[in-house]
Write a structure and sequence with these properties.
Number of strands: 49
Largest sheet: 27 strands, antiparallel
Shape: elongated
Number of helices: 15
Mean pLDDT: 76
Radius of gyration: 57 Å
């Protein structure tokens, strides 16, 4: 029995399934009728009494569609509604607007008899494109009740949120065989919605922009009601509020899409100007408002807002600092017209005792803005506030300026410029010509010349003006005096190109650097002035941008080629400026780099690598120089031939600092530091020169007579040179000659031979040392210490600038040198050295030398002989010796007194030398002295 019941159940189940399978076409047909003719019903699958429909697309009007991922229907068996929607997942999408809303439907537990859809539709994170809104756009979430019969549909109790916004929706309409036929009524209530976000959503769903008055106030909070009736269209009563603005909009969009309405309230002028992206510098203060009265017209797809803004006072800073009061504009009246393409405005602004009338257009979708101004007695300080630099106070603008161009003349006390013709197309200067004369003082006021420049010139300009109205460019020529240069100027940058204009550029350099620079003149260069060589050819480019100067200038003469890259910052700083090239010493002297009596000869050139520092008013040049050869002029000697020269120096307005000079000279090395002052703080020079291994025989005096004729050896030492203003050059130092060879000794050989003396070896046995100094009267050598075998010389000498010679030498003769001499051999018996004192005189060309009779042996012919010998040492030519003085025989001393003196001498009395001198003073000659000694020795032996 149970088995029969099972077979029956399976039979009826199969029969039922067969009936359902046969019903699928009827189900598809019914659903197609419900969804509309444009619906695309996908796969249908039967599961018991459930019908699953997948991948179905249902049109929701001309722009939107419902895409059903899966819908589940329940079979009712009723003829009028065979199916009831149980559940659905999918999304609503507006193709052209980009609106996407994921949806989910759940059927009510009890469905009314005529409804085939009844339940709750939930929207989760609906999104749409951001067009006018600013900041992050929050998604839309919410739900509403849905009721659909064969002839009607209803959306009720809709409650949605989007960030802080709250939206309530109610709507209903009719259905027929084609689907959602007609919207009968709808109501949307808004609370705390952002104007731009709401406008973006409306644009995405409907394809129509909201009124421009709402979209301009992007951050406004919108509250109000939108109501749709099939008999009258859309009625809106909305308020938009920001921190400064408060507008109330009452409008109607009729069934033919025409729009009518009004806007009233107050509007923050700065907010509106910011919406048009006008510069903040030209906006009124944030709390300045204007009264707004406007009307709405046009269509829902092309709305238009036009009306009037009025303000008794608007306060504008125009770039003024906060501690200065803003400029006041009074009785402002602006008539505006805003549509989907942009905004137009015209009106008048009261400015002091004048006014400014204007017409303006501002496209919203891009494109050039247009502005026409008709100023009437506007003060120059207003223009100075608007500009990036100060406008001359006496500037006046006149002419006829329209949207398509005209003629404009700008005048000051010394400037006459004309834009004629002036043509403007699409917001750009086109085929515009600028001609006239402009004063350099006005260029300085405008900031096109650095602060501190004192030019007093009138320049003629002639060229074309091209480019956007906000940033035009001038391309033409500028002529100052007889010099013409190419000029390319814009609001951001001014570039001057020139060739061979040394005089003008010298004056320009004078003004820019506060240093006197001019082309070399006749005579001596004035103190504190810099010169350009007469044959200097200058080419290059100077650019001024943001109150800074960039220049690249090439300077060429017959012997020099230099490239200077100069940058003057807005603060006058010269950081980054360089100078490179080849500078001849002749040009360096002309320029004024060497102003002391120690300087290079104008022969040869140096490789220069330099950097500029400091400011344009106080420039500082740090330079490295290299030269293969340099002949250095030093007072009193012939030019020193320096080779392999390297130097580091610094030059500024106060003077020249030589940090180091290193060079090869006469087989040795010389190095020095120096300070040369140009200005009142220090007008003079200080040199410190160090010598090492310099061959003294190669050094020549001023008359080209080399010192090798008298002395050879390696010279070491240091020399300091100093002078102040026009005062004398003062020098001092210490010198040493290693390995000296006294060539002058050979000149003494004939004289020494005649007097029975041998010639000493010229080779020094110790270094020659001395100190020296020179000043206003001449040169002085002291501390002299010279030694050869058997002879040592100490002393001093002076040579004045008239070449007169004076001095004293202490000569120490070794006893063995003069032992065989008839006279000097006597004291050589009792002492190791024989002292001689020589007084020097005469001139450098005709020197004389004589023994000092108070300090040497007082024998006339011996004195004459030694004097003649020293005279021959210095004589050029030799001076003839004077005739010998007759000797007077003194009376002989008493024998007893002589015996006493001789006894003391024989007993080696410490004063033996003095006792011998007493005998000589008494007239005892050498032969008598020898006989007295022999007799006294014999008498003492007899005792």
């Amino acid at each position: 029995m149970a088995e029969e019941r099972g077979r029956a159940a399976r039979f009826f189940e199969g029969f039922a399934n067969a009936l359902l399978e046969r019903a699928v076409p009827r189900v598809r047909e019914w659903l197609q009728a419900r969804f509309g003719a444009g619906a695309d019903v996908g796969g249908i699958r039967l599961d018991g009494r459930d019908v699953h429909v997948d991948d179905t697309r249902v049109p929701l009007g001309p722009r939107a569609r419902l895409t059903i991922a899966r819908a589940t229907f329940r079979i009712t068996g009723e003829a009028t509604r065979p199916l009831v929607l149980h559940a659905l997942t999918g999304e609503v999408r507006v193709d052209e607007g980009g609106f996407v809303a994921p949806v989910r439907f759940e059927s009510s537990r009890e469905v009314h008899a005529e409804a085939w859809i009844e339940g709750a539709l939930t929207v989760e994170r609906a999104t749409w494109p951001r067009v006018d809104a600013a900041g992050e756009q929050a998604p839309l979430d919410g739900s509403l009740a849905v009721l659909v019969t064969s002839t009607r549909w209803t959306l009720a109790r809709g409650a949605f949120t989007c960030a802080d916004a709250r939206i309530a929706i109610d709507a209903e309409g009719d259905l027929d065989a084609s689907g959602m036929k007609r919207l009968s009524s709808a109501r949307v209530d808004l609370r705390d919605a952002r104007a731009a976000h709401f406008a973006d959503a409306a644009l995405a769903i409907t394809g129509a922009r909201m009124s421009g008055a709402l979209t301009l106030l992007k951050e406004a909070r919108v509250e109000g009601t939108l109501a749709w009736l099939s008999q009258s269209g859309l009625d809106a009563e909305v308020s938009a509020t920001t921190e400064r603005s408060s507008l109330r909009v009452v409008a109607n969009a009729a069934l033919d899409e025409t729009v009518r309405g009004t806007i009233e309230g107050r509007i923050g002028v700065a907010e509106v100007m910011e919406a048009f992206d006008l510069p903040a510098v030209a906006r009124p203060l944030d709390d300045d408002v204007a009264r707004c009265e406007a009307r709405l017209s046009g269509t829902t797809r092309a709305p238009r807002t036009f009306g009037t803004l009025r303000a008794d006072v608007l306060r504008v800073r125009l770039g003024r600092p906060s501690f200065l009061p803003p400029r006041a504009v009074r009785d402002a009246v602006v008539e505006f017209d805003v549509d989907a393409q942009g905004a137009k405005a015209h009106g008048s602004l009261g400015v002091d005792d004048g006014a400014v009338r204007f017409d303006a257009s501002f496209p919203l979708g891009g494109g050039e803005r247009a502005l026409k101004l008709e100023p009437d007695r506007v003060p120059a300080e207003w223009a100075s506030d608007l500009a990036t630099s100060k406008i001359p106070d006496d500037a006046r603008v006149s002419g006829e300026l329209g949207l398509d161009g005209g003629t404009v003349r700008v005048t000051t006390a010394r400037t006459r410029l004309a834009f004629e013709p002036l043509r403007v197309r699409d917001g750009r200067f086109v085929d515009t010509r600028l001609r006239g004369d402009v004063a350099s003082s006005d260029l300085l006021t405008l900031g096109l010349l650095p602060a501190g420049a004192r030019l007093d010139e009138i320049a003629s300009v002639d060229g074309s003006v091209d480019g956007p109205l906000r940033d035009p460019a001038f391309d033409g020529t500028l002529r100052v005096r007889d010099v013409e240069v190419a000029l390319l100027a814009s609001r951001e940058r001014v570039t001057v190109r020139f060739a061979d204009a040394p005089a003008l550029l010298g004056e320009l350099a004078s003004e820019l650097t506060s240093t006197r620079v001019r082309v070399a003149g006749d005579g001596a260069r004035p103190s504190g002035e810099w010169w350009l060589p007469r044959d200097a050819a200058l080419t290059g480019e100077v650019a001024v941008a943001a109150f800074a100067i960039d220049a690249e200038i090439g300077v060429e003469t017959a012997t020099s080629a230099m490239l200077a890259k100069i940058r003057v910052g807005a603060d006058g700083a010269l950081d980054g400026s360089t100078v490179r090239g080849r500078l001849s010493f002749a040009d360096a002297i002309v320029i004024g780099l060497f102003r002391s009596r120690v300087r290079p000869r104008p022969i040869g050139a140096a490789k220069v690598k330099a950097a500029l520092a400091g400011t344009s008013g106080q420039p500082v040049l740090h330079a490295d120089l290299e030269a293969a050869a340099l002949d250095l002029e030093v007072p009193a000697i012939a030019p020193l031939p320096l080779r392999e020269v390297s130097a580091r120096l610094t030059v500024d307005g106060a003077g020249l600092v030589v940090r180091s000079i290193v060079a090869r000279v006469h087989g040795g090395e010389a190095s020095c530091e120096a300070l040369v002052g140009f200005g009142p703080a220090f007008d003079g020079m200080q040199w410190r020169i160090r010598l090492g291994g310099v061959r003294i025989e190669e050094i020549a005096l001023a008359e080209q007579r080399k010192l090798g004729a008298w002395l050879r050896g390696g010279l070491l030492g240091s020399v300091t040179l100093d002078s102040r203003g026009d005062g004398p050059l003062i020098g001092n130092g210490e010198l040493r000659v290693d390995g000296p060879e006294y060539e002058a000794i050979a000149l003494l050989a004939p004289t020494l031979s005649r007097h029975g003396l041998s010639t000493p070896s010229p080779v020094g046995v110790a270094p020659l040392v001395c100190r020296f100094g020179f000043g206003e009267r001449g040169v002085r050598f002291d501390g002299l210490d010279a030694r050869v075998d058997g002879v040592a010389v100490n002393g001093w000498t002076t040579i004045d600038w008239t070449r007169v010679l004076a001095g004293r030498l202490d000569v120490q003769l070794d006893a063995r040198v003069v032992r065989n001499h008839a006279l000097l051999g006597i004291p050589a018996l009792f002492a190791r050295t024989i002292p001689l004192v020589v007084d020097l005189g005469g001139t450098v060309d005709d020197p004389s030398a004589r023994l000092n009779p108070l300090q040497t042996l007082g024998v006339a012919d011996t004195v004459d002989s030694v004097t003649s010998a020293f005279a021959e040492l210095f004589a050029v030519p030799r001076r003839e010796p004077s005739a010998p003085t007759p000797r007077r025989e003194p009376p002989p001393a008493p024998s007893s007194e002589l015996d006493a003196i001789l006894d003391r001498i024989l007993d080696h009395d410490p004063r033996s030398e003095d006792l011998i001198a007493q005998l000589i003073d008494r007239g005892v000659d050498a032969d008598e002295f020898e006989r007295l000694l022999d007799r006294r020795r014999a008498a003492r032996r007899r005792r």
